[in-house]
Amino acid sequence: MSVPILKVRDLGVTFRTGDRTTIASTEVNFELAAGEVLAVVGESGSGKSVSALALTRLLPPSPSCEINGSIKLNGRELVGLTEGQLSKVRGREIAYIFQEPGTSLNPVYTIGFQIGEAIELHRPEISDRRAAVLAALRDVHIDDPARVADSYPHELSGGMQQRAMIAMALACDPKILVADEPTTALDVTIQQEIMDLLARLRRERGMSIILITHNFGIVANFADHVQVMRKGRIVEHGPTAQVMGDPQHEYTKGLIACIPRLGQRRHRLTTLKDELKVS
Predict the structure, then answer these.
(1) In what order do the strands lie in the sheet with 176-180?
(2) Which end of the chain has the smaller Cβ count within 10 Å, N or C?
């Protein structure tokens, strides 16, 4: 059995605004091995993204947001590290790509500048940053890396922007890539290209991936394990084939029933109070 590089135990995230307290996630437990893909599936607001952002505390500072539990990366506890210590983990060891690359990229700087800035911050040993930027863009199958490097985000398509975001994340050679709804804003053809790209990079680099999605349809042929979240808690977890082939929780069954299938009526998952209904 592979030794986990990431161990999360009893992770909880709580937000406080004035007199109001909101528990975004609680009792989140999982492990991630080197080269493994874990899919975190659930509706919007189920706690998927918040839990992933908590790994490197990409959330408001205390007391607005409190993170409890244990997050160990290769045996090192991340909860309680200073901002300076965490800044060395973000990007270099755990990198992120998000669902809206157009809003994640800075519109006033070129793609090459932004990738180069990440390289300068996390890999100062690299002297020729331009060459490293072009290599990163080629690695994500961009045919004209020099043109893209000199382009501003608005000059690129959504799919090209997402490839640039992936190149930026991978330029720092992270151990873990968190892909938060990386295909949501893209058309179906580009979605498949991005998922194929992530699969190839995983094989070549032995990189671990946490895929956050509401869509079980992209999970089956990509993830090794699945955890299903609802209302801030993990309601089901296991190998992908097991969860999709024999789901145990009604919520999981509802999500799987909503996967579009050719020739079948599309189902819709609704939540009424604490009851689930597939229609």
Answers:
(1) 94-97, 176-180, 208-213, 37-41, 225-230, 233-239
(2) N
Domain ranges of the chain: 102-173
Asked if residue 198 lies in contact with residue 231, where contact means CB atoms within 8 angstroms, the answer is no
Q: What does R_g of the chain's alpha carbons equal in angstroms?
A: 19
What is the DSSP secondary-structure string of 35-99? T-EEEEE--TTSSHHHHHHHTTT-SPPTTTEEEEEEEEETTEE-TT--HHHHHHHBTTTEEEE-S
> First vs last Cα of the chain: how many Å apart?
41
Distance CA(148)–CA(127), nearest Å, equals 21
The 10s digit of each residue's pLDDT in 153-174 is 999 998 999 999 999 998 988 9
Q: Find the Cα–Cα–Cα–Cα dihedral 218, 35, 90, 110, rounded to 10°.
A: -60
Q: How buried is residue 10: exposed, middle or buried, by Cβ count under 10 Å (0-12/13-18/19+)? A: exposed
226/236 Cα distance (integer angstroms): 8
Evaluated on CA atoms 53, 120, 81, 2, the torsion sign reads positive
Side-chain half-sphere of 239: how many Cα atoms within 13 Å? Answer: 3
| Helix, strand, or coil (residue 15) | strand
Strand partners, 96: 178
120-136 tens-digit pLDDT? 989 999 999 999 999 99
DSSP for 218-240 reads: GTTTT-SEEEEEETTEEEEEEEH
**3 state DSSP class of 212:** strand
Q: What does the block give as tokens for 146?
A: 């020099």
Structure-token pair, residue 226: 């699945």
What is the SS3 assignment for 211?
strand
3-state secondary structure of 197: helix
